[in-house]
Amino acid sequence: METEINVLALVKGDEKFIFLFDDTNRDATLRQLAHFAADPEVNFSWYDAATLCRKIRDAVPQDSDLAADLPPARQPRTPLSDRR
Q1: What per-residue confidence (pLDDT) applies to 59?
Q2: How far apart are CA 53 and CA 60, in angstroms?
Q3: In the chain, which stretches have pLDDT less than 50?
Q4: Is residue 56 within a helix (H) or strand (E), and if so which, with residue range?
């Protein structure tokens, strides 16, 4: 069985950031984006990281991603007349 390799690239001026990842190292790639964004010596912002994280999650979704996209569960409202 062949492994699909995903390619994600960001070009910022003269700099190019190219990420190659597959399903098994998806989470490591997400962590690497955060490391780049946290490094003041790398021209890679938190906005860049967030944008690329979304693209990775869209390309290789996992069950945990689906739960994060759901709205929070609503609590039933208690009428004011029942509150004491």
Answers
A1: 83
A2: 10
A3: 67, 70
A4: helix 46-59
The residues spanned by each domain of the chain are: 1-33+40-63
Closest CA to 58 of 70, 46, 66: 66
Return the CA Rg of the chain. Answer: 19
Write down the pTM of the prediction: 0.69
What is the structure's pLDDT at 81? 59
Closest to 35 (Cα-Cα) out of 17, 53, 49, 55:
49
Distance CA 79, CA 83 (A): 7
25: tokens are: 């190292």
What are residue 48's phi and psi, to 5 degrees?
A: -60, -45
